[in-house]
Amino acid sequence: MADLEIKGLSKQFGGIKALSDVNFSANSGEVHALLGENGAGKSTLIKCLGACQSYDTGEIFLEGKKMTAVHPKEAMDAGIGIVFQELSLIPNISVAENLFLGIDVKNRFSISRKKIINEKTKQILKEFEIEDIHPETKVGELTLSEKQMIEIVKVVSRNTKVVVLDEATSALTTNRVEWLLKLVRKLKEEKRIIIFISHRMGEIREFCSVVTVFRNGENVGTYDLDKVENDELITTMLGRKVTGYYPEKVNTKQNRVALEVKNLSFENYLENINFQLSYGEVVGIGGLAGQGQNSLLLALSGCVKAQKGEILLDGKPVKLGNPKQAMDHGIVLVPEERATEGLVLELSIADNLLLPCLSKITRAGFIDRQKEKKLLDHAVESLSIKVGDIQNPVKSLSGGNQQKVVLAKLMMLEPKVLLLYDFTRGVDVGTKNVMFELVRDLAAQGNCILFYSTDIEELVNVCDRVLVMDGGKIRASIAWEKLTQENILRSSVGENVQ
Ligand SMILES: Nc1ncnc2c1ncn2[C@@H]1O[C@H](COP(=O)(O)OP(=O)(O)OP(=O)(O)O)[C@@H](O)[C@H]1O
């Protein structure tokens, strides 16, 4: 028997079979990838493993011992540590309080708990080489990447035998991914079992030695990564062949400027930003993470108010005092954190989709049910969102399908200018392909798109040109003919690209 053995696990939610008779095994010192389309059942499997979810049938054995945990705390005590896809830290308490939540701290000399946990957290952060984060900082003040690191530290520092990383890299900046890679190598040496869920093939190959592929709730194959090509894995995962991962890039730029930004400044985050966006153009935003990219998209979508500068739409100055005003002008944002900024998790899938466009389907205060159905069917179909019942809460969808809902609901507004913040985060390769096609199609129809991505390959293959940001300024604009990964990287670190 392997060190971790899952036998015949099944889980059904209403009519949806999330897991069907799944067998899975992993051994100590192994980094084992789980690969599968959005909604294939990967998160459900690990939620069952971590007793966050009950299962209908099946058994789980860790080091030969049958797991009987019915509560996440019991699973953690039995050796299962899970870093979840949607961050679970509490924003209004400190890093130290989050790390020691639910842990008794021994106190023999009546020193305050606060002092002890701050000191211990300082040591932990030093051990994990992230001393730039302060123990007393409130988690809500951290960047997404920093929050993700704390979440990882919280789980790994509890010394569990199994460490599950569910899409842990998708919220990390490039240098933090390197940090995680180093950490995973250490965990491997410590003979822990690491389960690594990701949609990024490159990372799977870098981090893992074995991969198990899931399709529609079933384990459809386990492979030694040295002996299998990406094409075979993707075909197994999707049950079909994907031809051409990126769509053909056709120049659809029109000679008509849609959006013009003049001398835009916002606190310390943006300084004298100037650029134009034409109809039919896809413009990427690149640069190292945290160089003002988020602030720029927030300012253009009316989420923050710039102190200086002007924004013109079709040559006329517009006031973008709040997101509603921006939407009324046809400017919409797919935000960074889908769970807190993009969706109302408790509401149904249907309500989330309809929220921004209620006025389109209401008349004299009544909802036109036929129009409503047509809009909803179109939204679900256009992005192949995997829903059981559209009246289920949106939080019951898999992470990638939630992201598709965010995009679909904004598309219903038929926007002129689409602002995309890393919108393929957590989305499977098949759907990424659909989303890229959608972006290029929208451009061909005359829309303009500002596309921020942490994935340089995406920027090169999807955008017409890329603005590289550095210290709140636009350092360079890399034109179509010069658009290579190397040029974006060079420009990001301050080199001139000729
Ligand atoms: N609490 C729930 N209620 C209803 N359906 C659920 C619930 N949790 C998961 N599901 C459904 O089970 C299926 C498997 O979802 P799961 O989250 O395991 O997928 P996943 O492979 O992790 O996807 P992703 O790559 O998007 O994270 C999906 O169809 C999802 O909608």
UniProtKB/TrEMBL annotation:
Say if the entry is tagged with keyword ATP-binding: yes
**InterPro entries registered for this protein in UniProt:** AAA+_ATPase (IPR003593), ABC_carbohydrate_import_ATPase (IPR050107), ABC_transporter-like_ATP-bd (IPR003439), ABC_transporter-like_CS (IPR017871), P-loop_NTPase (IPR027417)
Record-annotated ABC transporter domain positions: 4-241, 252-496
Classify the source by domain of life: Bacteria
Quote the EC number. 3.6.3.17
Q: Which UniProt keywords apply?
A: ATP-binding, Hydrolase, Nucleotide-binding, Repeat, Sugar transport, Transport
What is a single molecular function from GO for this protein? ATP binding
Q: Which Pfam families match?
A: ABC_tran
- The protein in question is named ABC-type sugar transport system, ATPase component
Which species is listed as the source?
Blautia obeum A2-162
Lineage of the native species?
A: Bacteria, Bacillati, Bacillota, Clostridia, Lachnospirales
